[in-house]
Design a protein that fits this description.
Layout: H1 2-22, E1 25-26, H2 28-41, H3 46-54, E2 57-58, H4 64-72, H5 77-89, H6 133-150, E3 157-168, E4 176-188, E5 191-199, E6 202-206, H7 208-211, H8 224-231, E7 238-247, E8 250-259, E9 267-273, E10 276-281, E11 283-290, E12 297-305, E13 313-327, E14 330-344, E15 347-360, E16 388-390
Helix pairs in contact: 3-5, 4-5, 6-8
Amino acid sequence: MIMNMTLCRLLLLAGISFALQAQMQMNVSQLADFIRSEIALRQHSDKQIAAYVKKIELTEKLTDKTILDLQAQGAGEKTVQALQELRDKTASLKPPTHDATYSPATAPEAQIPTGPATVTLNSKAPPIPPPDSVQQQQILDRIRDYASNYTSNLPNFICVEVVRRYIDPNAGDHYRSIGTVLSKVEYVEGHERYKVYSVNGQMQDISMERAGVGGGAMSQGEFGSLMSQIFEPKSAAEFGWDHWATLRGRRMAVFNYFIDSGHSSWSIDYHSGPGDDQRIITAYKGLVYADPDTGEVARIKFVAVDIPRTFPVSEATEILDYDLVDINGQQYVCPLMARLYMTAGREKTKNEIEFRDYRKFGTESTITYDVNPTAPPPAPLPASRTEEQPASASQPNSASQPSSSNQKPASNNTPAKSGSANPWELPTLPPPPPPKQPQ
C-alpha cells in the first residue's frame, strides 16, 4: 500500500512538471500571474514554486521592481532567489511594455500638491489572480464529481415553494406584483413534483401550469435536475475560467459554460391562451459558482441563447442558489432560492422563488392545505444571502471557512415546531402593539 501511494505521488508531481514544461516560455505578465496565483491558493511550498520558476524561460527582461513587488505581495525567499536568477538571465532582453505588478511598498512617493488639499481613500483590495490551467482543471473535476453525486446524496423530502411574481408590460424595470403562488414540492428518488395549494392568499388545488394562466412566468426543475444536466456527458458542455467571487461569506471559483441546442435539455414553454401552446429546447450558457476545495455548488446561472426570432419569448435567464438546510436534524445542501427573468414582446416578467420548511418525506407524512388565506408569505431573504461580492486576496481562503458539514442551517429554513396543528401554514405577522393611552 505504501509503495502504491508513493507511486501516485510521483505520478502527480510528474504530471505537474509536464504541464509546466508545456508552458515553459512566458512573458513577465504571465510569470507574475503565476506567482500571485500560487501565493493566493497556497497549494505549493516556497521550495516547489522556486523549482518551477527555475524551469521557466522568459521572453522579456525581468526587473528588480517586479521582483520587489512580488516579494511584497508574498513571494517566499527561495522564490525570490529563483526570480533573481531569471533577472540575470534576461538582462539583455527588452523590458515589457507595461508594468506587470504593483505594490504600495514599491510605488514611488507621491508628490505634494501645490493646490488645495484633497484626500482620496481607496479601500478596494487587489483582485485574486486566476489559478493556472492545471489548478482550473482540478477544481472543475471536483465540481463535476460533486454534481454527478448530488442527487444520490439527497434524502426524500418535502418543502414549500414561495413564488413572488412580477410583471412589467412596458419592457422597462418598473415591475408590479401580480401575486404570490405557494406550492408543495415533493422530492422522491431523484424526481420532483409540484402541487399548488394557494394563489394570492386563496385556497387552490391546481397544477403549476394553471397557476401561471393570466400572465407572468413559471418554472420547474430547480432541484438536482438543473445541476446534473450541465455536467452530464451527453450535454457536451464547454467550460472556461471566469472569476473569483464571494457568496454568503465564502470564496467561490466561478466557471462559465455553454451547451448548444443539440445537446440541451433546457426548454421554454409559452402559453398565451387556449390552443396557443409553444415549446422550444434552446441552447444556453451561464456561470457555475463552487467551493474550489470541495466542488460544492452554491449558484448556477442559466441564460438562453440563439432563441428563434419567431418564438414569442426573446430572453430567458434563471439564477439558482443552493445553501445548507436542516431536514429532520441533518444538514443538506438544497435549493435556497431562484430568480427567473423572461421577456416576451414588450412584456417583462420576474419571479422570485424561495424554498422553505424542508422536512423529510416518508409514508408517515401527512400534508394538509388548510392554510390561513389572510396569512402573508414570509419576508424575502436578505440581500446578504443572495448578492455576490467581489473576492480579493485579503479575504481568507475558502479552506479556512467552515465546511458544509459543520455549518448551522439557515434560520429561514428552520422546520415548523412539532406541536403545530398544520405544518404547512405559513407564519403570520405578530399583531401591532396597542396604542398608548393618553395620560
